[in-house]
Amino acid sequence: MELDREQQEIAQTAARLIVEDGLDYATARRKAMQEHGGGRRLRETPSNEAIEDEVRAHIAIFHADTQPAELRALRAAALRWMLRLAEFRPHLGGAVWRGTATRQSIVRIDLYCEDTKAPELALLNKGVDYETVSEPLGRGEQSLTLVIAERSAAVSPRQVWPRASGLSAPRRSSRSSTLKCSVTQSPSSALRSAITSVSDCSPRPSGSLTVS
């Protein structure tokens, strides 16, 4: 759907907030609408797809020289953690998977296991510091997210890696990167063996990279 002028402006502002400030799409869209008078004249708000198009355009204009290296560093961090957490069938998603990540982006990995406490125990056994965040999913259900900050030598000392912007060239740093692992309870072994219509009954996000 072609955007009208106000929708285009809101999508562009949201894209700037996502790239430069590391906001998620919903928050960036809401703030962008506030900046443009609440979007009172809008027939409909810009979709995530429309905003992502503007994110790619913003990166191409303002960060074409730095974003590819930042994306490689984030994907390297994601792969490292996916290998460490391979027993929980990690799936990479978000901007790191889509290729739109910058140093402001959070590495998002979905984990699937029968016991949602198992990833926490694994991190404890590995001596990894983490925080747990419970987010509402609706209908009384909660999503458990493990937030991990790790030291990295990936890019600039000015960044909180991957939360920063505007490097002219990558430099070594010992600042921290942010990884969020969302833990989803998958069906038990008995139930999995009873389901024959699909090869893997655990939910798998569309468009995600997996390590199994």
Task: Explain what the structure shows.
With 212 residues, the protein is an alpha+beta fold. Helices cover 38% and strands 19% of the residues. It has two domains: 5-62, no CATH class; 67-210, 2-Layer Sandwich (Beta Polymerase, domain 2). The chain has helices at 5-21, 25-35, 48-62, 67-84, 94-98, 118-125, 189-194; strands spanning 91-93, 107-113, 131-138, 141-151, 176-185, 209-210. Strands 3-4-5-2-1-6 form a six-stranded mixed beta sheet. The protein is globular and about 55 Å long. Residues 152-175 and 188-207 have low confidence and may be disordered.
Describe what is shown at a glance:
The chain has 212 residues and is of the alpha+beta class. It is built from 7 helices and 6 strands, in the order H-H-H-H-E-H-E-H-E-E-E-H-E.
Q: How many structural domains does the protein architecture include?
A: 2
CATH H level, superfamily name of the largest domain? Beta Polymerase, domain 2
- Quaternary structure state of the chains depicted: single chain
Residue runs with pLDDT of under 50 for 5 or more positions: 152-175, 188-207
List the SSEs and their pairings.
Blueprint (H helix, E strand, L loop, with lengths): L4 H17 L3 H11 L12 H15 L4 H18 L6 E3 H5 L8 E7 L4 H8 L5 E8 L2 E11 L24 E10 L3 H6 L14 E2 L2
Helix pairs in contact: 1-2, 1-3
